[in-house]
Design a protein that fits this description.
The structure holds three protein chains of three kinds. Chain A is an alpha+beta fold. Chain A contains three helices and seven strands. In chain A, strands 2-4-5-7-6 form a five-stranded mixed barrel. The radius of gyration of chain A is 23 Å and the shape is elongated. Helices cover 40% and strands 23% of the residues of chain B. Chain B has a seven-stranded mixed sheet. Chain B contains six helices and seven strands; from the N terminus they run ααβββαβαβαββα. Chain B folds into two domains: 31 residues, no CATH class; 140 residues, Glutaredoxin (3-Layer(aba) Sandwich), CATH 3.40.30.10. In chain B, strand 1 and strand 2 form a beta hairpin. By secondary structure, chain C is α+β, with helices and mostly antiparallel strands. In chain C, strands 3, 4, 5, 6, 7 and 8 form a six-stranded antiparallel sheet that branches. Chain C folds into four domains: 159 residues, no CATH class; 231 residues, no CATH class; 122 residues, no CATH class; 103 residues, no CATH class. Classes of the chains: A alpha+beta, B alpha/beta, C alpha+beta. Chains in contact: A-B, A-C, B-C. At the A-C interface, helix 1, strand 1, strand 3 and helix 3 of A face helix 12, strand 1, helix 13, strand 2 and strand 8 of C.
């Protein structure tokens, strides 16, 4: 009688743990497929493995005097003081987007010099710069 | 069973907290060590309220130069200002203040209210030049020697400890 | 002057809190049957002093007293009074003071209102709650003092970021804080219950109103936050799965689970330990959320200015709190024997809990994963909305189904069998009609649609039934109806939303599939503290030839110099037309974002309905108590 109870309990426990391992595995699989990696222009230049199909984020500073508007889109250059990348975007930008300010853009890379952004990310604070950008600038200031 | 649960849960949380704790370590983000010993870039900066410019090359004539980036709209700048006044009393340092993206009148009244510690006052109306110095936000302060090498860079407001550190650095 | 007064009040409040902890501790396990009057008096005094300190800060903001660094940094003399007031809690220091006020308020309310006879339970709850108060007061004084003085006194303040000058944003933090911080009282009560060993029923009765209140405020707070994001951020979205939004959603999941578990605990012995775990978890999630938001380790659109020493303090507090709770739990938790019949109401409620905990896990992993990866490997990532949608959506189906059949389980088996079928038939018909209108091909999305309709119809029938019988829980029906409608309208909104991005010059026309957009005029205005550039757009629908005038704005504020883009939203009952413009190159080309978003008002309404259920339950409960 007691043995039976223990058996049932054990099998439930086993089933549960298998299920949760499976669930966690699947969860991380989905997670891995849907994360957006962040790169600086220099990282893009130096890396061979960036998948052009995958959506990524890039960041740096909007180069002074580089913003151009046409009927189709806006183009501007993102720089990390070492390397540059041209970004094309259509739509409105967040309020704090300006030349000489930090920016993070989300979209796809066409080639190592050209990026098509789907979204430009907004920040609230004048004194604030996205930490990722800050860090990549530090590395490239060497 | 209970004990095992207890241990497992404790370990799980410990792991979580260790990660969170190490993510707090902001050294990674604000690390300025890489900059030390590098030469500052050659930049022409406008003098405050004038058409003249000054080239960073000219700092060669000073034993030590401190570049401070500030604005009247920046709250931490107000906090660090008394420390800049302290620094201005050290004789072998020339203080260069770069006023960023500021309203001229409020910048003037800021210095009137809090004192003007700067030997040279420069301005950067659109924040363009500051980018050349690798300035991300304000306030930031760069200490350079007569060879134009960066001795130290401070991100955020200077505090008393920083002032003492600078004192030591320029004594050597 | 105000600074000194504020500081004094805070210090006195801290001393009183120590006194309260001391007396509570002394009172624990004495032979007295009731709590002595002096504890009530001290508690009132504590409430008085903390509330006054908050009023002083409020006053400093209203009077623009720039000798306070906090006021200087966040206010300005020519700011409208409403935003001067909301400036009080619009920053870290002020919001922390508000946080403490809520802690103290809940502590006193619990002491005065709770009718539990067990003195040890009450006194211990008070003890734990006031330890929390002390910790946060020390945090405030040592690290985040809103009363810090500034000398020399500046003549003018720096102003509040214009993006933050919005009525929805001004009121949503206090709402969320009542939710967040309100959960502290049942955290304290749960620990007290373990030690004083009160029975499960009286625990359930003791904490239920507090859970309901915090859940209600949390729900409304999330709603108002979403409304703000929709109107002010100018992207036309209302939920971004942003870390800050996630950290308000995570406690909500646990609260929802707790709410349902308490329903079981009220009537049966089971789930005692589980309710305790959930109570502890709710507040833990609230503090974790606060940590993530305030420490600056996450990259988000809603950042508070970050400061690592703050993060360290909150993290240390979190660590101590969690390990202390774990210790208390394992030392005192009773051994329960679980006896359930499989097809009972309890099973369904426990199923709800599994879903909520699963949702919590998904959101928690999504939020923390970037932090982990950055720390361990150094690569920078963010987790996008597709992850959440992909993982959460399939699980909505069983959840919706359980929400439909669960509550009625007892009734189904006998009298209303035919009724059940009628509901099903009606749902299928309605689903087919919507399906033909939408022609969505995704199987998963269609299932979600069907089950949300099924839930809506079922709850509407229940609603009708509840007029005949008295024993049906009306608050449950309203909340579940709200949830069903929410999913339904999010779904419809998702499918019918349109978005077009393009650039236009003045006088030009853009044709999309359904609309003709004409850029008619441009006007510059000077208003009190900003300059405004207003665009006049004429939108006409090709099919119906209905025209609309939209007037998006670009605002240039001077203190601090900030540009904001004000979306122009034409809101009808069934659809919102949404247009923003910007001009970043400073040429004559304007960047336009044009969106059509159906049923936005219905989404807001559904969440309101959801929260209303909680409120009704709270109110009806109080009525029952009086009778």
């Amino acid at each position: 009688m007691l043995l039976k109870k223990v058996k049932i309990r054990l099998s439930i426990l086993l089933a549960l743990s298998v299920l949760s391992v499976l669930a966690i595995f699947l969860l991380f699989k989905v997670l891995e497929d849907n994360v957006l990696y962040f790169y600086s222009p220099s990282e893009i230049k130096n890396s061979d493995e960036i998948n052009l199909k995958k959506r990524i984020r890039i960041g740096g500073i909007v180069k002074q005097g580089s913003i151009q508007s046409s009927e189709r889109d806006i183009k501007f250059i993102v720089t990390d003081t070492k390397n540059e990348i041209i970004v094309s975007y259509s739509g409105t930008v967040p309020a704090l987007f300006a030349e000489g300010k930090g920016v993070v853009a989300e979209g796809n890379l066409k080639d190592k010099k050209f990026f098509v952004a789907k979204r430009i990310l907004a920040k609230h604070d004048e004194n604030y710069m996205p930490p990722e950008v800050e860090e990549s600038l530090n590395i490239n200031a060497k | 069973m209970r004990k095992i649960n207890y241990i497992i849960i404790s370990i799980l949380f410990s792991f979580l907290f260790i990660i969170l704790y190490s993510s707090l370590d902001n050294e990674r983000i604000y690390n300025t060590k890489d900059l030390i010993g590098k030469k500052i870039s050659q930049v022409e900066i406008n003098l405050f309220q004038s058409n003249e410019t000054i080239n960073t090359e000219e700092f060669i004539n000073n034993e030590f130069t401190i570049l401070n980036f500030w604005a009247s709209w920046c709250a931490p700048c107000r906090k660090e200002h008394p420390n800049l006044v302290r620094l201005s009393k050290i004789k072998n340092i020339k203080l260069v203040g770069v006023n960023i993206k500021d309203n001229v009148e409020s910048a003037k009244s800021f210095l009137k209210e809090n004192g003007n510690p700067f030997d040279i006052l420069a301005e950067d109306k659109n924040g363009k030049n500051s980018v050349n110095f690798g300035v991300y936000g304000i306030p930031e302060t760069i200490l350079i020697d007569s060879e134009l090498k960066i001795l130290k860079k401070y991100i955020g407001p200077l505090n008393i400890k920083d002032v003492n550190e600078i004192r030591k650095l320029v004594k050597k | 002057m105000l600074s000194n007064l504020g500081n004094t009040l805070i210090i006195v409040a801290l001393l009183i809190s120590f006194l309260l902890v001391f007396f509570s501790f002394k009172e624990f396990r004495t032979n007295n049957n009731s709590i002595p009057g002096k504890i009530y008096k001290i508690s009132l005094l504590q409430l008085f002093f903390t509330a006054s300190s908050f009023i002083i800060l409020l006053l400093a903001y209203v009077l623009s007293d720039f000798s306070l660094a906090n006021v200087y940094e966040n206010s300005h003399t020519n700011k409208p009074l409403f935003y001067k007031i909301s400036g009080t809690w619009g920053n870290h220091e002020g919001s922390l003071l508000l946080w403490i006020n809520i802690l103290v308020l809940f502590s006193s309310l619990f002491l005065f209102i709770n009718k539990n006879k067990d003195k040890d339970f009450k006194i211990l709850t008070l003890l734990f709650q006031n330890i929390l108060v002390i910790i946060f007061l020390i945090f405030l004084l040592s690290n985040s003092n809103p009363f810090s003085k500034l000398f020399p006194i500046p003549l003018e303040g720096l102003g509040l970021n214009p993006i933050l000058q919005d009525p929805a944003l001004a009121i949503h933090p206090p709402l969320l804080y009542v939710g967040f911080v309100g959960s502290s009282i049942y955290f304290s009560a749960a620990l007290a219950a373990l030690i004083s060993k009160i029975d499960s029923q009286s625990l359930a009765i003791s904490i239920k109103p507090w859970v309901l209140v915090s859940w209600f405020f949390q729900t409304v707070g999330i709603l108002v936050g979403s409304i703000w994001a929709y109107y002010e951020l100018g992207w036309g979205g209302y939920w971004f799965w942003d870390p800050v939004e996630n950290s308000s959603l995570m406690p909500w999941f646990v609260m929802t689970a707790l709410l349902h578990s308490i329903l079981v605990l009220e009537r049966r012995i089971g789930l005692y330990s589980w309710v305790i775990v959930l109570s502890i978890l709710t507040f833990t999630m609230s503090v974790t959320g606060t940590f993530l938001v305030r420490s600056g380790i996450l990259n988000s659109v809603h950042t508070f200015a970050s400061d690592p020493s703050r993060g360290l303090f909150i993290l240390s507090f979190l660590i101590i709190m969690v390990f202390f709770s774990i210790y208390i739990f394992f030392k005192f938790a009773p051994n329960e024997s679980k006896k359930y019949t499989i097809f009972s109401k309890e099973t369904f409620i426990i199923a709800n809990n599994w879903f909520m905990i699963f949702f919590l896990g998904v959101v928690l992993i999504g939020t923390l994963y970037p932090v982990f990866l950055d720390t361990i490997t150094g690569s920078k990532i963010s987790v996008g909305p597709p992850y959440y949608n992909l993982v959460l959506a399939p699980f909505l189906i069983p959840l919706l189904f359980l929400m439909t059949s669960g509550p009625n389980y007892k009734w189904i088996s006998h009298e209303t069998k035919s009724f059940f079928d009628l509901v099903l038939v009606l749902s299928v018909i309605l689903f087919l009609i919507t399906f033909l209108l939408i022609k969505e091909s995704s199987f998963l999305l269609n299932l979600i649609l069907f089950f949300s309709i099924y839930l809506i119809i079922q709850t509407l029938f229940d609603f009708y039934e509840s007029f005949k019988k008295k024993n049906i829980n009306i608050s449950r029906i309203i909340s579940h109806l709200g949830f069903g409608l929410l999913i339904f309208f999010i779904y419809i909104n998702h499918i019918f939303s349109q978005e077009n991005n393009f650039n236009l010059k003045l006088g030009e026309i853009k044709k999309t599939d359904q609309y003709i957009i004409k850029f008619e005029n441009l006007e510059e205005k000077s208003i009190k503290n900003y300059k405004s550039i207003v665009g006049y757009f004429n939108i006409s629908d090709k099919k119906t030839s209905i025209t609309k005038e939209l007037k998006p704005e670009i605002r240039v504020y001077d203190k601090p110099i900030t540009i904001t883009y004000e979306a122009s939203i034409e809101s009808n009952l069934f659809s919102d037309t949404y247009l923003t413009m910007s001009n970043i190159s400073e040429t004559d080309v304007f960047n336009i974002k044009f969106q059509v978003k159906p049923f936005m008002n219905f989404i807001w309404f559904s969440v309101l309905l959801l929260s209303l259920g909680g409120l009704l339950n709270f109110l009806s409960r109080n009525k029952n108590e009086k009778n």
